[in-house]
Design a protein that fits this description.
alpha/beta, 46% helix, binds 2-phosphoglycolic acid
């Protein structure tokens, strides 16, 4: 039984004051939703303020990126040692990091290994762009991303991971994938690749989210799919009512008892 997981990726939104207001608005209702993991991923500058606000609740915290080194002359980077004082989760390899900041599959793999070595749970993002999708290259491309991201890990490590399948053409566009298409890539392609790299038990244990224009109106379409364990939510996670509503719908469909 995989525990469902909804994560809110705030991206480069919310000052400390705005983050505080948003968390105050939703923390009571969000923490009242049981049987599902709830993760907030604010920008680095707001992590500490958010930790203080969610401290007594079961809401978890994630960062949006990290460097693999523990410390050193890496101006502008943040390390796993710094994050583990604050967070349980860290998003790694989001398509915006790959596209705008040149993150490669190899960098993603180094970050995943470092996060795991420091007790942080990675949420590893994969997904094809529109051109690849239209050219029928989705399966091969996503398989390649998964293979490199998980290279050198143990089955035990992979079981504890979260992968987010986020087709790039669906991110921030209002044009989500269909539940059936997302489930096919998540089940057949991603779990299939994990099964071939490790074993079927590992492929069945790992949690996989869908991401890309998830909102309260379409979250049920994804959560009713057998291989989809949750969602990585961008835009709708910035609005308290929407994030609470979609988390509640997801829990009602897939809550672990
Ligand atoms: P979106 O973003 O929900 O705004 O499409 C999802 C993401 O990039 O994680």
């Amino acid at each position: 039984m995989r525990t469902p997981i909804i994560a809110g990726n705030w991206k480069m939104h919310k000052t400390i004051a705005e983050a505080t207001a948003l968390v105050r608005k939703m923390r009571r209702e969000l923490s009242a939703i049981k049987g599902i993991e709830k993760v907030l991923c604010p920008p680095f500058a707001a992590l500490s303020a958010v930790v203080d606000l969610i401290g007594p609740t079961d809401i978890k915290l994630g960062a949006q990126n990290m460097h693999w080194e523990e410390q050193g002359a890496f101006t502008g980077e943040i390390s796993p040692l710094m994050l583990k004082e604050l967070c349980q989760y860290v998003i790694i390899g989001h398509s915006e990091r790959r596209k705008y900041f040149g993150e490669t599959d190899e960098a993603v793999n180094r970050k995943v290994k470092s996060a795991l070595a420091h007790g942080l749970k990675p949420i590893i993002c994969v997904g094809e762009n529109l051109e690849q999708n239209e050219a029928g290259q989705t399966d091969a491309f996503v398989t390649g991303q998964v293979r490199v991201a998980l290279d050198g890990l143990t089955a035990a490590q992979v079981k504890g991971l979260v992968v987010a399948y986020e087709p790039i053409w669906a991110i921030g566009t209002g044009r989500a994938a269909t539940g059936a298409d997302a489930n096919r890539v998540i089940g057949l392609v991603i779990r299939g690749t994990v099964s071939s790299m490790f074993d079927e038990g590992t492929a069945q244990a790992l949690r996989i989210q869908y991401g890309g224009s998830v909102n309260p109106a379409n979250v049920a379409e994804f959560m009713t799919q057998p291989d989809i364990d949750g969602a990585l939510v961008g835009g709708a996670s910035l609005v308290a009512d929407k994030f609470v509503a979609l988390t509640r719908i997801a829990a009602d469909i897939k809550r672990v008892r």
